[in-house]
Structure formats: C-alpha cells, structure tokens
Design a protein that fits this description.
single chain, 381 residues, alpha/beta, Transcription Regulator spoIIAA, 2 domains, 4-stranded mixed β-sheet, 13 helices, elongated
Length: 381
C-alpha cells in the first residue's frame, strides 16, 4: 500500500505525555470508517487521567460523523470532571466540529441492530394503521359526497350537466372498444376451457350454461369494473391531482365553489350511469365469445346456443350483475377523486396517488364482489 493510502486510513492511538493522556487521531474520520474505531474511542474517554489532550494534527479528512465522535469524546471526558483539550485541529475542519452537537453522549455512532422479526411486525403494524386511517378518511369523504349529492338533488340546477355528459363520454362511450374486446376474448377462453373439461363427461352442451351464468353474474361486471378502475379511476386521480399541484382547486375554493360539487359529483354521477351500460355491453361481448366457441367447437348453431342459454339463465342472473354495477362505480369514482384530492406539492405525488387509486379501487371492487357473491348465495338469488 502506498504512503498516500496509509495517510488517509483512519487511525487512533493513546500515548502518555508527562501527566497528560494524549489521544492521537490520524487519517480520514468519516461515516464509513469511524464506526470501526467507536469502541476504542469510548474506552479511551473512560481511562483515568488528570488531563486529556486530543491531538488532531494528522487528520486527513473529517465529516459530520467524525466531528460528532470527536465532540462526543471531549464532552464525555469533561463530564467526568477531567480537563480536555483539542490540539492542532486543521482550520478547514474547525467549522464542522463547531456545528456538531451531541444531544446524547452515550449514543453509539452506529445505529442499534434491529431484530428482523420485530422490524417485519413493525412494518405490518404501520401498514394496518395506515389502512385504518385511509378507510376512516375515505368513509368521511363518502359521507361528505353524499351530503353534496343530496344538495344537488334538492337543487338540480346546481348540477354541472355539461361536465357530467363529458365524463359519461370519457368513461363510458370511449371505453366500449377495450371492454368489448377483452370480454369477448375472456368469453372465448372460458367457453373453450369449459368445453374441454365437460367433453370428458359427455356434458359439453353444459358449456353454454357455464358461460351464461358466469358471464352474467360475475365475469362481465367484474371485468368491466376492473377496466374502468384502471382506466377512469386513474384518470380521475391524475386530473384532480394535477389541478391540486397547479393550485386550481385552491382557486375554486377561493371563489366560493365546492371542489366536491364541481369536480367530484360530475365524475361520480357519470360513472354510476356509464358502468351499468358498460356491464350490459360486457355481458353481450362475453356471450358472443362463448357463442363463437359453441359454433366451431361444439357444432351448435346460433339458434341452439340461444335456446340452451335461455334455459340456463334467467332474469335474476342478469339483474345480479347489473345490481353491482352502480355500487362498484361509486367506489371507483370516490377512491379516484379522494386520492386526487390528497395530492400535494409535486408531480411525484400525482404519480404515487394515481397508482394508489388504481390499487385501492381494484382491491375494493374484488372484495365487494366476493361479499355480494356470498350474500346472494345465502339469499338464494
């Protein structure tokens, strides 16, 4: 190793000079190196002596961690009633040493080791507490939105009709291609896999029953809601979040306008109108996909498919899926708008809350769908 490398290595030595104890510091005293010398430095500060001199003439580098360690050592020595002196500190390092503070001289330079199991439990606890706070705030936002909605129902002229119609177009009409395509393909996959399994038992005709019941009761509304959550829920959060960053929401409130009435209600009402219509479209596309498989794989005519479908499903299967649509729409719109209004200060915040809105809304849609499935099964619907 070269002399230059040796001169920059952190070093610490203890000498006796007459009646004084001399602590000699050398090399670079920085965060990544001073931890190794912390134990020796603490032991030296506790050694008995009438006077202690800290010689820093050979210091080759110093950062806030090293300055903190030196300052802690001096204060520890003085706390024992022993005179302490810092000698030959280079002028370049004097300012950083003066700014170093030691609130707790007994605190170690390195952070205390944390038990991994305790750390995992702590993170889980924080996540649960955060989720509970978000649920509480979202419930409060839901209540406030209902109050504003009741006010608009009592005074219909306060409804932003143009904005509502524009949102119906954006969330409903413009979503028809992607919802139709995906539900058609899912209908094909569901019918194809069902036919392959049912053929083994000579019951391939029941593929029509499988497709009809699953599409109308579960798959159609669930796919439509998830697509809308990813497409429109994120758009709501991003649009309102960008308005928050640009202080447009503050400008609305300065003018005496309610941000919920102007921004949230048109989106909530529009999505509650659009999603049931999208559900009907998704059901039709899924059943069409199943009919294609029935035509080519089961050798059924379209008329035979419809006849079998009519015997397999009834109006309640369709009504069950349609009943869930406004509830899912309300949840998606509220979560998207709520997370958009939580944005503050930066474009990074817009991205974070937009992602959070999509995750939360899809999670709530799936949880609600499971709750509805259990409730309808218990009711015999």
């Amino acid at each position: 190793m070269s002399e230059a490398g040796l001169s920059t290595r952190p070093a610490f030595a203890v000498d006796a000079d007459g009646g004084a104890l001399v602590l000699r510091l050398a090399g670079r005293w920085t965060l990544d190196t001073v931890q190794r010398l912390d134990r020796d430095l603490r032991a030296a500060a506790e050694r008995p002596a009438d006077r202690v001199v800290v010689d820093a003439a050979e210091l080759a580098g110093l950062d806030s961690a090293g300055a903190w360690a030196i300052r802690r050592t001096l204060e520890r020595i003085e706390a024992r009633g022993v005179a302490a002196e810092l000698r030959a500190l280079p002028e370049a390092y004097r300012a950083i040493l003066e700014k170093a503070s030691v609130p707790d001289p007994a605190a170690p330079v390195a952070p205390a080791a944390v038990n991994p199991a305790v750390a995992v439990l702590e993170r889980c606890g924080r996540a649960v507490a955060h989720g509970a706070h978000v649920a509480r705030d979202l419930a409060g936002f839901f209540g406030f939105t209902l109050v504003c909605l009741a006010g608009v129902i009592a005074r219909p002229w306060r409804l932003r009709l143009t904005a509502t119609v524009a949102q119906i177009e954006a969330t409903g009409l413009n979503a028809l291609p992607i919802v139709g395509l995906l539900c058609f393909l899912v209908g094909i996959v569901l019918a194809y896999m069902g036919a392959l399994q049912l053929k083994q038992f000579g019951a391939d005709i029941l593929t029509v029953n499988l497709v009809g019941v699953s599409i109308l009761r579960e798959i159609g509304i669930l796919l439509a809601a998830i697509i809308v959550a990813g497409r429109s829920g994120s758009a709501f959060a991003a649009q309102i979040g960008t308005m928050k960053v640009n202080q447009e929401v503050d400008a609305l409130e300065t003018m005496g306008l309610s941000a919920v009435e102007v921004l949230v209600l048109p989106r909530v009402i529009a999505l509650m109108i659009a999603l049931p219509l999208l559900t009907v479209w998704a059901d039709a596309a899924g059943l069409l996909g199943g009919a294609v498989v029935a035509l080519f794989l089961l050798d059924l005519t379209f008329g035979q498919f419809l006849t079998q479908l009519q015997g397999a499903v009834d109006i309640w299967d369709f009504a069950v899926g349609l009943f869930k649509a406004p509830v899912f729409a309300l949840v998606i719109a509220l979560v998207g708008c709520y997370d958009g209004l939580r944005v503050s200060g930066s474009a990074e915040s817009v991205g974070r809350y937009t992602t959070q809105a999509v995750v939360e809304s899809i999670f709530l849609v799936i949880v609600l769908n499971a709750a509805f499935a259990v409730a309808f099964a218990e009711l015999g619907l």
